[in-house]
């Protein structure tokens, strides 16, 4: 059956270039259809063996190529250099593995439309000379997991630069339009080199210097002064910073995980970032307390803080709080109109909880062994959680008398509260009560007593979640 050219074109659009070549050998119609330039604007030769002559012939035949992927191709540098005169419409180039010398980067000037260059897992230069990337049209440059002695980047239109995991002793930047800079895990870069590179980019909005162990507070302060539009900063795993006296008023996203120098005194500088929306403070071993009043803060993460004892958060838009493995945490105070779910599981030292969260629906305080009977006031009417529907207090072994007066509560779990002897519930909407393992319960009171939707049977915990 003969296929129309349009139908054949549609079918061939689903084939990779290897299969197109095979299909083109079938007949003249298929050969003509397989050679349509629509199929050859994106040349994907990743991890493919291709001879120099074949590559040059393809580039000569299809000179409208816009995307070229040569990652993992042997002698990819030679292929590009030999075919560069046919790649004048190239916009995106991906290279990976092998050696890329100065000649390769100089040849890129023959591609005036090139705006994105990605190089990964490659050796740059000869190992004794500086590698220079100089291109007037380049907008995004990714040099990832590469090896070089010195790198100089002079791209006046560059917006995004990543040097992640690249082993280099020095980097020089002349990129006045740069907005995003990534130095993650550049272990060989000195504090001075990072400082000079970042401060040379006055429009910088996003900076990732995580796992650059040499970075100091002095560098952060100079970057703050030079890059006043900085809105995203990742300084995680930088043991020498305390963040004190660092003023970043435009900061929106701040990550300081595993920074050994972060203490409660650091929170003063954090408070200076009044429009901050996201904060990450995981594994900051010296942090003992966090007190923040930030009107735009939406989420915060506090994980594995061994000395952390006091949390006080006030933000009308706070919607996500992650607190985990904070064994010393005793006091939590939260004020938010956006928070709907709060999980504080296994906080065995937690004994004081204050909530003013008018849209809070679900609370899980499982295994908080130090919670006392006073917790009932927090979750009763007038306690600050008027929309509460689900409350889990499983294995809170210090609870002995539980009295709840809540007009919105639907689900309540007290499984494993072995010290509880008295239970009084005045919750007209209550449908599920879980009392598994409450072996010492002597008296229970439900009001109203004739409420048909109150289920007093011993449901397992799964049934609460299902409902």
From TrEMBL:
It comes from the Eukaryota. Transmembrane segments: none annotated. It holds the Pfam family F-box-like. Residues 1-43 form the F-box domain. Gene3D superfamilies: Ribonuclease Inhibitor. SUPFAM superfamilies: F-box domain, L domain-like, RNI-like. SMART domains: FBOX, LRR_CC. InterPro entries: F-box-like_dom_sf, F-box_dom, FBL15-like, Leu-rich_rpt_Cys-con_subtyp, LRR_dom_sf. PANTHER family: F-BOX DOMAIN-CONTAINING PROTEIN, OS10G0396666 PROTEIN. This is F-box domain-containing protein. The lineage of its organism: Eukaryota, Viridiplantae, Streptophyta, Embryophyta, Tracheophyta.
């Amino acid at each position: 059956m003969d296929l129309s050219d349009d139908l054949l074109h549609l079918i061939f659009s689903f084939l990779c270039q290897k299969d197109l070549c095979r299909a083109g050998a079938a007949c003249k119609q298929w050969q003509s259809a397989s050679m349509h330039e629509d199929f050859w604007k994106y040349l994907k030769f990743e991890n493919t063996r291709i001879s120099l002559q074949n590559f040059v012939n393809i580039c000569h035949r299809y000179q409208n190529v816009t995307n070229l992927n040569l990652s993992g191709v042997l002698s990819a540098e030679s292929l590009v250099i030999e075919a560069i005169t046919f790649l004048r419409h190239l916009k995106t180039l991906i290279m990976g593995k092998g050696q890329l010398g100065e000649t390769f980067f100089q040849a890129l000037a023959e591609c005036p439309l090139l705006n994105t260059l990605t190089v990964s897992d490659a050796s740059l230069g000869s190992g004794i000379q500086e590698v220079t990337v100089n291109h007037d049209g380049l907008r995004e440059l990714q040099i990832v997991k590469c090896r070089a002695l010195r790198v100089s980047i002079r791209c006046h239109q560059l917006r995004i630069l990543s040097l992640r995991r690249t082993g280099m002793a020095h980097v020089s930047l002349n990129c006045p339009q740069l907005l995003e800079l990534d130095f993650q895990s550049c272990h060989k870069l000195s504090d001075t080199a990072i400082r000079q590179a970042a401060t040379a980019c006055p429009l910088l909005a996003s900076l990732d210097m995580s796992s650059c162990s040499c970075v100091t507070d002095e560098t952060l302060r100079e970057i703050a002064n030079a890059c006043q539009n900085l809105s995203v900063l990742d300084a995680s795993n930088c043991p020498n910073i305390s963040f004190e006296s660092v003023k970043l008023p435009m900061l929106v996203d701040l990550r300081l995980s595993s920074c050994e120098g972060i203490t409660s005194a650091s929170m003063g500088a954090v408070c200076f970032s009044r429009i901050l929306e996201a904060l990450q403070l995981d594994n900051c071993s010296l942090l003992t307390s966090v007190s923040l009043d930030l009107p735009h803060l939406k989420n915060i993460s506090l994980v594995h803080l061994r000395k952390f004892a006091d949390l006080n958060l006030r933000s009308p838009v706070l919607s996500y709080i992650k607190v985990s493995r904070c064994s010393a945490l005793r006091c939590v105070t939260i004020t938010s109109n956006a928070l709907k779910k709060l999980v504080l599981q296994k906080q065995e030292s937690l004994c004081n909880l204050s909530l003013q969260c008018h849209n809070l629906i679900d609370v899980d305080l499982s295994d908080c062994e130090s919670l006392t009977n006073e917790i009932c006031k927090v979750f009763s009417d007038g306690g600050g959680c008027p929309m509460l529907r689900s409350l889990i207090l499983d294995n809170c072994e210090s609870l002995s008398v539980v009295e709840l007066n809540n007009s919105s509560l639907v689900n309540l779990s007290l499984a494993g509260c072995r010290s509880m002897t008295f239970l009084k519930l005045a919750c007209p909407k209550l449908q599920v009560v879980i009392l598994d393992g409450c072996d010492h319960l002597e008296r229970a009171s439900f009001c109203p007593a004739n409420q048909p939707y109150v289920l007093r049977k011993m449901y397992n915990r799964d049934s609460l979640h299902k409902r």
